Amino acid sequence: MTTAEQMPAIILVEPQMGENIGAAARAMLNFGLTEMRIVNPRDGWPNERAVAMASRADEVLDNARLFSSVEEAIADLKKVYATTARPRDMIKHVATPKGAAQELRSLSAAGEKAGILFGKESWGLSSEHVTLADTIITVPLNPDFSSINLGQAVLLVAYEWFQSEDDTADMVIRNSERLANKEELAHLFNRIEGELDARGYFEPIMARKPVILRNMRNMFQRFGLMESDIRAFQGIVKGLCLPRRGEQDKD
């Protein structure tokens, strides 16, 4: 079994009921997961109803960390999965809970930190939150009745994680490099967006700016960039923003 630091983080995004947070904590501990991160819970935190529903999964709730945004909650992670049952108008890797669990085991074995996003009970994750993920996890369910609650969703993913312990796939990390974390990716996205804004790129197509940026972010998320890749892209952006040869002399 891997250490707690290497285990994936379970990230509950805007959960609405304390009971569901408690059910998620209980499911996590049933299958050996202990790191819960909570983003903007509707009823505040800590929550007595969560404690009652957790049925002695105090280890999870006592150490749960509270965040004000998804970006903050995933900043230190190298790979992020988003659970969703709804089709999305974006290109993403898609995995079942079993397939994702095998990938997570490989990441864990390589010392890479990952996390799994779970949306609020009423609507799940927003498209903006899904955009931040590398891979979508979709549970195969009865198409005529595919609604499951938050605790059940966490239980299904946690179960597959637990069952995958003996099926760790090989993973090669070149030159012992690490994957870029989400904070580093966010800095790169923001710099590209800022430079495009500064040069008026979006002015003729302002209405399409959100879609273009979303597609750009999804594209970069699929690449699985390493830390050196981020530095390389930062250097490329810097180089593209330099004046052309001869322009400085003309000025």
UniProtKB/TrEMBL annotation:
tRNA/rRNA methyltransferase SpoU type domain segment(s): 9-159
Cross-referenced Gene3D superfamilies: 1.10.8.590, 3.40.1280.10
Domain of life, per lineage: Bacteria
Localization of this protein: Cytoplasm
Parts forming coiled coils: none
Annotated keywords: Cytoplasm, Methyltransferase, S-adenosyl-L-methionine, Transferase, tRNA processing
Pfam families in alphabetical order: SpoU_methylase
Catalytic activity reported: cytidine(32) in tRNA + S-adenosyl-L-methionine = 2'-O-methylcytidine(32) in tRNA + S-adenosyl-L-homocysteine + H(+); uridine(32) in tRNA + S-adenosyl-L-methionine = 2'-O-methyluridine(32) in tRNA + S-adenosyl-L-homocysteine + H(+)
Protein name per UniProt: tRNA (cytidine/uridine-2'-O-)-methyltransferase TrmJ
Function per UniProt: Catalyzes the formation of 2'O-methylated cytidine (Cm32) or 2'O-methylated uridine (Um32) at position 32 in tRNA.
Source organism per UniProt: Sneathiella chinensis
Name of encoding gene: lasT
EC annotation from Swiss-Prot or TrEMBL: 2.1.1.200
Complexes and interactors: Homodimer.
Entry similarity comment: Belongs to the class IV-like SAM-binding methyltransferase superfamily. RNA methyltransferase TrmH family.
EC class: transferase
Leader peptide range in chain numbering: none
